[in-house]
Amino acid sequence: MRRAGFLALLATALLLCAPARAQDEEALTAAPDEPVKQIRMYAENWKWTPKTIRVTKGTRLSIDFESRDASHSFDLKSYKIKVPLPEGSKKHFEFVADKVGEFRFKCGRPCGNGCAKMTGTLIVEE
What we know:
Layout: H1 2-28, E1 36-44, E2 47-49, E3 52-56, E4 59-67, E5 72-76, E6 81-85, E7 90-97, E8 101-107, E9 119-125
Parallel strand pairs: 1-4, 3-9
Antiparallel strand pairs: 1-2, 4-7, 5-6, 5-8, 8-9
């Protein structure tokens, strides 16, 4: 009896989790009509390259990061995004630019005297 109860509970839990997984996978897949902008972003010598990213609202940003000289962190607080970038690493991150405005990004890791200058701007237009 205990085993049957446990199996029923396990089956219910799996069924409840399945829709959440489908939603997560769906959120990571760009809709066919959703524009995608691919960007290579470099962190090096206390600066981001490119320093400015300009897109239209609804664009999916597909960013390939590379930290060349030290450990950094891409921090875009307005979108609640923080991507740690250990020295010499490459990382990929995607999100949809769904808010109009100018949003500052910065290095979110104390990496030396130049950290305060390591900023850039995401510009999302209508």
